Amino acid sequence: MNTPQQDQQVTIGGIPTVFRALGSDSGGALSIVEQSIAPGTLFWPHVHTDHDQVNIVLDGELGVRIGDREWTATAGETIVKPRLIPHTVWNAGTTTVRILEISTPATFEDYFLALSALGPDDHDARAALQQRYGVTGVPGWAEDLRERHGVRL
Predict the structure, then answer these.
(1) What is the pLDDT of residues 13-43, one digit of tens each?
(2) How many domains does the chain have?
(3) Scanning 52, 59, 62, 76, which has the fewest C-beta atoms within 10 Å of its C-beta?
(4) In a domain, 152, yes or no
(5) What pTM, to 2 d.p., does this model score?
(6) Residues 103, 19, 6, 76: is their CA dihedral positive or negative?
(7) Residues spanned by the domain of 82
(8) Each residue of 99-119: pLDDT tens digit?
(9) Of 2, 38, 39, whose CA–CA distance to 17 is shortest?
(10) How far is CA 150 from CA 25, 51, 66, 109, 135, in A?
(11) How far is the C-alpha of 82 from the C-alpha of 103, rounded, in Å?
């Protein structure tokens, strides 16, 4: 498998993702990506078994759901997404939202790079990748958020 390079940009499900800090920069402690979320976009609702994540909103307003809690985060706000807690984010606004996402421990940058190489019909490869990185979907959330906020995967 290829490894990401610092400042390399990939697109994951239509979301531009730039690798800002790699696990190799921190002795495997963390990785950081910057993502731009277009209006109407929903991240796939999911749970991590192996990674904690933090988002910092750089620009715009970001819809957030972590477990049963839901709110809108604004520029400058920090969002903590602990492992084993279902979560997702979305942009229900009219302008692009930019975030930094910090994952700990590192290795999640490898997941993003591998995911960016998959096509929309690569279901078996996607399932294997999710299993390898301890990521599972959250049934019903996408439909609920689409209905209430007008956002889509």
Answers:
(1) 889 999 999 999 999 999 999 999 999 999 9
(2) 1
(3) 76
(4) no
(5) 0.93
(6) negative
(7) 9-143
(8) 999 999 999 999 999 999 999
(9) 38
(10) 38, 29, 19, 29, 25
(11) 10
